[in-house]
Structures are given as C-alpha cells and as structure tokens.
Amino acid sequence: MMHPSLAAGSALGLALALSACAVPVATAEAPQTSAPVPAALTGEAQIEDLLARMTLERKIAQLIMPDIASITPEDVRTYRFGTILNGGNSGPGGDDAAPAPEWLALADAYWDASTAPLPGGEPAIPALWATDAVHGHSNIPGATIFPHNIGLGATRDPQLMRDIGRVTAAEIAVTGIDWTFAPTLAVATDDRWGRTYESFSEDPALVAQLGEATIRGFQGEPGTQGFLDQTRVIATAKHFYGDGGTAGKDRGDTRGDPATLKAVHGAPYPPAIDAGVQTVMASFSSVNGEKVHGSTAILTDYLRGELGFEGLVVGDWNGHGELAACSNVDCPESLMAGLDIFMVPEDWKGLYENLLAQARDGTVPMARVDEAVRRILRVKQAYGVFDRPKPSARQLAGNFAMLGSQDHREVARRAVRQSLVLLENDGVLPLESSANVLVAGKAADDIAQQSGGWSITWQGGGELANKDFPGATSIFAGIDRALTAGGGSAVLSPDGSYSARPDAAVVVFGEEPYSEFVGDRDDLAFRDEEGLELLRKFDAADIPTVAVFLSGRPLWMNRELALADAFVAAWLPGSEGSGIADVLVSDADGAIAHDFTGKLAFGWPGGCAPDAAVMFPFGAGWSYANPPARRDYDTDCALLEPGFGAGLRIFERGMGPGLQALARDAKGQTSLSNLSGKSPSGILQVSAFDSRAQEDARRAQWGGPAQLLFGWQQRAFPQDAALRIRYRLYNVPDGGISLRGLCDDCDIAVDLASTFTLGAGKGWRNATIPLTCLTSNDAAIAPNGIALQSDAAFVIELESVGIIPEANFEGCDGPF
Ligand code: BGC
Ligand code: BGC
Prior knowledge:
Layout: H1 43-53, H2 56-62, E1 64-65, H3 73-79, E2 83-86, H4 100-115, E3 128-131, H5 149-155, H6 158-174, E4 179-180, H7 204-219, E5 236-240, E6 253-254, H8 258-265, H9 269-274, E7 279-282, E8 286-287, E9 290-291, H10 296-306, E10 312-314, H11 332-337, E11 342-343, H12 348-360, H13 366-382, H14 406-419, E12 421-425, E13 436-440, H15 447-451, H16 475-485, E14 489-493, E15 504-510, H17 530-540, E16 545-550, H18 558-563, E17 566-569, H19 578-584, E18 604-605, E19 614-616, E20 648-652, E21 660-665, E22 668-671, E23 677-678, E24 684-689, E25 697-702, E26 706-711, E27 722-728, E28 737-741, E29 749-751, H20 753-759, E30 765-770, E31 785-790, E32 794-804
Parallel strand pairs: 1-11, 2-3, 3-4, 5-7, 6-8, 7-10, 13-14, 13-15, 15-16, 16-17
Antiparallel strand pairs: 8-9, 12-17, 18-19, 20-32, 21-22, 21-26, 23-24, 24-25, 25-32, 26-31, 27-30, 27-32, 28-29, 28-31
Bound molecules: beta-D-glucopyranose (BGC) (2 copies).
C-alpha cells in the first residue's frame, strides 16, 4: 500500500520546525503491509500521538544504537531499538566485505523486526540503519569510492560536493540503508592527527562551504519535494565540536578561549544546520578538558541554544563510556548533557537496562526521555520512514547496477582530476600519450592503498587486494589505458626494474592506509624511503620522473621534491585511478584535455620539525598554464637521524651502549650479549637481522611464556619521559602481551595487546609509553629496566629502544 503522504508535510523537512500543522489525512482501513505507522496524522500531532502510545521500554529503546555485529533481527524484534549501525568492520553475517544484496536483505530483516505489530495499540516504529559512507558507500564492494575529504578540499568545488552527496546517497539507497555518518566537518589544525584526511581543510570557511554542499547532496534541498525523498539519505554533521583542534591527538583535548574555538571549529555548523542536516554526532574529544559527551554547555547551550539545531544528537562509538563518571553500560550524564542516541555497539543490553531503571527511579527525568524520543521521531518523520515501504521495496533499492555505475564513477573520476595539486614540474608533464612509461612503486597498482582508511574495512589496506574493489581502476591501469590509446605503453614495475629504458618513470608511493588514532603521528617527516629510493635510481639513470604522492595529509617530503622532475599531491583518490592519467597524460594529438586545477586546502610544511614554517601555503598549486618555478629544498631533517635527543639510547643501530639484556623463562634466565641468544629452555630466541644496515635489528621469537628484559643505568629522566620502541609485527598477538618497569615501585603491568593488534601488518611503527605508566608512584621514580612479557607464541622485530625526553601524555590504557 502506498501512503498518500509520501510527498506531504513530513517529507518536506518542515518537521523539525515545531509548528504543529496537524491536518489529519483520512486513510482507508487497510492492512499494514508496508508503512507500519498509521499516517492518519502528520506533523507534531503524529509525533505526540506516537509518543503517547509508546511504553517506557520502547522509548528507552529508541535511545540505543547497537552495531549489526552484536544484534540480530530477533533482538530488534524483542527490544525495538530505534537505530542500528554498521561500524567500519561490521557487515552482514559477520562479513564486512559481504556483497550488496546481503546488505539489502539484512535491512529488510531489521525492518521486519522493528515493524512487527505490537499488542495493545503500541506503535511499531521502523528502525533506521546508519553507516559510515564517508567517501562513497565505501563499506560495500563495488561501490564508487570518492577521494577522501582532504582531496575534495583541494577542488574548491561545492557543485561537485552536491553531486558526490547525491551519488553516494543513491548508492546507499540501493542497499536499503537510511543514514550516513558524514560529512566530517572537522577543521584539522594539526596534520599529525590521524583523521586529517577526513577534513576538507584547515580553513573553517572552506570546510563550511563544502560541508554544507555535501549535506545538500545527501539529503536534497530543504523545503522542496525532493528533500529526503527515496533517493536521499539522512546526513550527519560530525564530530561536534573541536575534533580537529586537539594538537594532533585523536580523542584529545581542544584548548583555547571558547569564542575563538567556536569561530574556528564551530564555523561549519551553522551552514550545515541551515542546509537541514538532521543529525549531529558528538565528538570523542574534549574541549578545555571537558568531554563533549558529557558537556551540557556544548551539546545543549551551544548546539541548541546558540546554533538553533533541532535535529537529533548521536553519540560516537562508546563515546559516553569515556566520561570519568560513566561506563559503556551506564551513563545518564550523557543523556542529561544533551545526547539523544547512545552509540553502544556491543553493550546495548546493559545500557538499555540501566537507562530503563534510571528513568523509572527518576535519575533521568521523563521529560528528558520524551524530548530525546521526540527528536528521533521527528527525524524519522522528516525522512518519511513512517510512509515508506520496507527497504527492498523502495525506489532505488536492489538496483545493484547503480552501485559503481558508469555515471557515478565519472563523478568520482572528475573529483580525482580536480583534487590533484601540482607542486613541481620542470616540463616532464604532461606525458605524451605516445611515450613509453615505467610505472613504479608498490602503490601504483594497489586500489586499497589509493583508497585509504574507511574502505571495505575500518583501517583499509592490509589484506585487501584489487579484487576486493570490483570495477575500480588503479593508478597504473589508468595510465596504461591512456598511453595504450595514444600509441604509447605503460609497464608496471613495483620495484622499478626495467629491461627497456623508458622515456619517463611515474613513481607512485605514500602513506599506508589508516584511520582514526591509528594514524596519529608525532611529527610530519615522511620516513618511508621506498619512493625516495626509486627516484634516486631513476635520477642516476637520467630517466625523468613524476612523483605521485598518496597521503592523508601534507608531509615533509623535501628529499622527494628535490629529486622528482614533477611532483603531484594526489591525496587518497579512491576507486577511480584513471582521474590521474586524465591530467598527467596529453591527448593523442598532444593536446591537454584536463589541466591541474587543485589548490592546497592545507599548508605544506617546509621542514620536518613540528613547528616548521609552511613552504607551500594554503591555496598553492600550479598548472600547465601556470607552471611552478623550480625551488631549492632543504633536505636535512634532524628527526630522520636515528637517536633519542636528550633521552637515552638503549638499543639502536645494532648496538646497546651499556645495555644489559636478559631472556627469562620458567627455567631461569640467560644474559643476551649483543642482544642475541636464547632463554634457558629455548622458548624465547632473539636473533639479529638487517633492517637498514647490517644486523641493525633484532627478531624476538616467543614459543610460549617468557620475558625479554632490558636494563640501563641512568635513573634521572624528565617528568614526562617515555619509553620509545620502534617495532614491526606481522601478526596480531595470540595471547597477553605486557610491559613492566623494573624498580621498587614498578608493580604495574602495561597491557600492550591493543597497541600490537593495531600495529600488526603496518610496517615499522613507534610505540611511546610514558614512564609514569610503569611506576605506581609519581614520576620521580623511574625504572632502570623493562620486561616485555608474552604468554603465548609471539614474534616482534625491534629496530630501536630508548627513552625520549617528552611525550604527550594520553593516559596509560593504550593503544600507545
Ligand atoms: C568514529 C565515527 C564513526 C563511528 C561509527 C567512530 O569510531 O569516530 O566517525 O562514525 O565510529 O563507525
Ligand atoms: C569500528 C569502527 C569504529 C571503531 C572505533 C571499529 O571496530 O569498526 O566503525 O569507528 O571501532 O574504535
């Protein structure tokens, strides 16, 4: 049955205005085969009617958002949760790479569960499903994947954002999902932050402009028939607010006077609210020491009072549980501060029970519960869900050919072209389409790497292969097509070897994928030397080079900039790698079809120290029409020298000055001279291998419970000193891994499981563990040794161990 009110008031985005335009629409008595909520009422009258007929249990259930990995349709039928999400690693049947039809089938299953009739006239309110479609519907194999926001910022093109929002909404609607946790409106002001690439720009005005346009694309134009129609989805402005101001630390603290902070980090929100954004996500982070998830000043006084937001506020992933007074299952404080929906992926049952009890005993007043439920129902009404059929019966649902369709990919390819920023070109670009070009670098034919984090999986990269991105085009494949069409050729050579001397080499390299805190860094020096080595090699052979740099942020790259004949910042372009060849390769007749138009949305550092001056400012970017003048680059970077500054070298470059090392197991302990040897039973073995130089690194291999101990003499360290371990892991540890300090007051075991779980498979990484975490006393007492303990089989490679003079203290829970 089609409801008459599909295009009526509720779908016009007016629902958030409190005007009660209650014009009852007479509906015939008909079986509820599609829309579960009788549409006899509209506007506020409908909301009040629903609320009046809901039990307290069902109201509380509206406030809870579990993850599909932890909740079955049967649970939804029992509890009637108002919303669900799929986190970055969740998918139907436990498979985050499940094909699109399975997502739609699951959407139907949750719909059926949430809309199954209830006894006693209680309304069955459809659940909404939310997903992180942050650069296209990027959890779904075969969907169009757009450049991450940092690349879109370089396009400066709001019309393109509207197109991207519209296309992404359509692809989401194909899978029956209702809501995207996008766009991110962070104004990233410190590029060491692991989420810098989710930010359009360091400039609040540009974030505001592009964010607003994206929202209009997702939801349609408020006040028109098309607003939140069946081709659109609900958008989220996130993460409110100050997420980008935390001095480079994810979930950190944004400090400053409130007026200034609002002018910077709050600036994108008024235009987003004007665009009719239905939901706002609270930030994990704090403002001046106060967690946003517990801040009435931010979530209520500022967001609602000052900014006039009337939609719903959703929490971030267990963000409420991070309040000092709360746990994942118990947090009336967040509700009272202004959160309407708790994102509680796994612990939904406990939170539901506690909130219910707190509503019954008055800890949370009924008025606050009703207010939150009203807001949720209004968003549902604005989205027209009371009038919609089940997911698979909606306009675009099941139209799987639309996922990654040619038209959609064209929009993404245009975005890639427009996002490229030219920083150097001595004339090697454009490549003539008749040229023979070597395409080098491991990233050249790696769609997962060019897509970055939030692509199929939460972290992206890792195990993903090109086959996990059906229909996508790698950067190499795009260059190959363009050259083949022009009579030239492209040869893929990840390691840069060649038999026939090429006319030019394109070197594709950059950051490995990451997301959130996993991508936080201590400085902006790009250390991976794969690209640098390739550029050196071609330079020595007099082969002209084009560097294509993939990254989630500007990084200090002067060594590469100095060597390359052309340098293109390509950010994280996504599934349409051919957009790069569109700009790099000229037509068969030598004409340039697409010039560079991208301009930096973030200043690019000229030195590697955290306080280095900007070299390429915001707005920089050259083109064929306006070529760059060759620069000189300072290629020195003190941070690249191995060493610990004023700290202490314990083990480094194969040596340990004054190092005492022991391998200890149930049978006793052995001293490891030159940090090599075995524990008494042989269960722990440490051996040398070559990392950058001969025998400069160690591989420690556990067969079962044992400890590796390092001792040193120095005892006085600065208050904020930290242990720095440079390590590489191939596999997630099987059992418990902990670290203890050795001293009288060192009886605390620091758990390293989360650190190593995140670090596995990601190449060389630093773990920085504040020394205070190793002592039960104050920092005055420092350990004079450490013990790394594993309870099960475990292999770790170590390049260096030392103590650095200062660390940003982020607590002792890890990951470090
Ligand atoms: C992120 C959000 C995301 C949410 C759901 C959180 O960890 O901070 O940006 O929307 O998870 O996946
Ligand atoms: C989820 C993400 C989420 C993250 C938060 C992951 O397991 O898949 O969606 O953002 O956890 O820590």
